[in-house]
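Morning!

This is the sequence you dropped in the shared folder:
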Amino acid sequence: LLYRWGNPWAYKSGTLDDKQLYDQHDVRWIPPGLPGAGDLTAFNNGAGRGYSSIIEITPPIKADGTYTLGDDDRYGPSELSWEYAAESKPEFFSSFISGATRLPNGNTFICEGATGRFFEVNSRGDIVWQHINIYGGELDQDGRPNDPVRAAEQLFKEEKKSFVENNALFRATKIMLDDPAIAKRSLEPLAEQPIPFSSLVEAELDKLKAAAATAAPEETPADTDAEPATDAQNKTSSSDNAESTTEQSTDEPGK
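The structure's back. Tokens below.
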């Protein structure tokens, strides 16, 4: 192990209060020629603290390629070279997956994986642009992405009333316009912006609900006000009728 940073408690050189990384993802070297070249960036997920951040550190590399261990037996740096967090910190939070990449213009491209949001910030932390992923699907092992019929059938089977958006992204990569991979390709849109997956699922779910309502037989409401007669009441009624008939017979003339 050549170098470690973010939790000196893990190598018995601090306490848990010294922890700076919280389930981080996508640690990267900034390539030569880019602003911050030689530094490390990471998506600091923030699991357990309630917000995420992007950090950049300058590792203490010596001329021979080894790393400097401080007088306190900790690897530096003690301060971040750069950090991005939302002004209202909980507004930027993904407790898992996600990533960040330094761009040639000095901006940083960020994928907030759990929410399906990717965006670009400048060195001051201003958001240049952002986009919400509209593609979704099942995340189970046998799930099929972008299959609204299957997703609606599963919801209907489980008697769930609506679809919860599932547009998480593991990571995203921004491809620059001058990248050789797309230099000779047409960048015209191939199709209109697709309908959000959640809207497609809700439409299919409405169809299933309507079909079920049509197929269900109509029930005639029962008269709940009338109480059924008991056997004793039936016997009494029969006896009363017999006595009434006898009385009428004895009153006839000539009898």
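Headline: The longest helix spans residues 231-250.

More detail when I'm at my desk.
O.
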